[in-house]
Each structure stands twice: as C-alpha cells, then as structure tokens.
Amino acid sequence: MNKKALAILMRARMRPNHLTNFALSPISNELNQILSNSHGNRSGENGEHHAMEHGKEKLNHQRSFEVVRESMHSVISMNKTEVGDSVLNEFLEGYCSLSFENRRKLLLTLAKEYDLNRAQVCELIKQYLGLQPPGSEAQSGGVADEGFLSTFYRIERNLRHSLKPVYETLFERLNTHPEGLKFLTIIRADILSILTQCIQSVILLILREDWELVVVVSDIFIQPYLNIAETIQV
C-alpha cells in the first residue's frame, strides 16, 4: 500500500457496524473476560484482606480481654502485701482500653466466677443448725458449754467469711489506690449503662407477657450486676 492510499484510509470514518462487530468479536469477549477476572481477583483480594484484618482485630480484642481478665485475677488472688500499685495500674489501664462489650463481658465474669461459694455456705449452715444451743438440757454446763460456744463462734466466723463475695476483695484493694475512687466510678457508670439495656429488654418481654423470660433475664443478667453495684463504695 502506497503512502497516498494509507493517508486516505487513516482519514476515513469507521462505520458503526465496525464497532458493533468488534464489540461482539471473540477478542472483545476475551478482553472483557480478562478485565472481569482482574476486577474479580482484586475484589476477592480486597475481601480476603478485609476478612483477615477483621479476624486479626477480633483476635487482638480477645487477647486484650484475656490479658485484662488475668490481671483482674491477679489483683484478687494475690496476698494483700503482694498487690502493689503496678499490679493495680495494669488492671486499671487494661480495663479502660476495653470496648464496652468486653467491659460488660468482664463484669459479668467478675459477678459469676468471683461470687459466693454457695456450696460452702450451705455446708456451714447445716453444721450450725446441727448444733445444740448453749445452755440447753442436752448439755451438762460448765466446760461443755464453753466447748459448744467455741464451736458456735468458729462456724459463725467461717459463715461470715463465706458470705462475703470474692469480688469484694477487688473493690477493697482498688479503694487503696490513688486513682481507685475515680476508677470505681467508671465501673459503676458502666454497670448502670448495662442495667439500662437489660431493663429495656425486660420491658419488651413484659409487653409480650413472656413472664418466664422476664425471670430468666432478671436472674441471669440483671441480678449479678446489681450485686456488684451494691458492693461498690464511692
């Protein structure tokens, strides 16, 4: 092809049917498929990346919760002389870093796992009720009365100790911390927010007249938080 013919061809307009034919040609379909696959791969990669990031974030939240839970356990279980400001600071900072949902979860754990040892309470009550009161006809008086009184005093002392929830130890030790009062105020505010949500759920159940669930929600979700709230002295 000479230069003149090439110039004429380059200036010529392409008809619409040429575009249509190209759009329907196998090459066009293949290009569209490649572009579609490329876009799909990118979307898939983005989706996988998002899922991985979400999984990492969830795992980090879970690890943070477990770390704070262990810190709380240390504050409760350590001897009074072993609990220093560093241990309390670790728990305070960890709690404040938790999301509201994890705070709710931690407080529920505190209320249930560090509550009374009811099996021990029942056993002590049985022992106490099985004793004969001092001065009764079944006793001969004198040394026997003193022995029975000693047994009464011992069981009463153990009973008073067993009726004290374990989580009270946490609040007592936080009260000795310079920032403890402020922190206990934060915990109580969180509990009030949680109770507000629980009460709203109970109101909905009452409106539905689902009385069995009202009792379940009250006993399982509301009462544990109320027990903690009553213990906090601020």
UniProtKB/TrEMBL annotation:
GO molecular function annotation: malonyl-CoA decarboxylase activity
Alphabetized Pfam families for the sequence: MCD_N
GO cellular component annotations of the record: mitochondrial matrix; peroxisomal matrix
Any GO BP: malonyl-CoA catabolic process
Highest taxon, organism lineage: Eukaryota
Location of the Malonyl-CoA decarboxylase N-terminal domain: 156-196
Protein name from the UniProt record: Malonyl-CoA decarboxylase, mitochondrial isoform X2
Taxonomic classification: Eukaryota, Viridiplantae, Streptophyta, Embryophyta, Tracheophyta
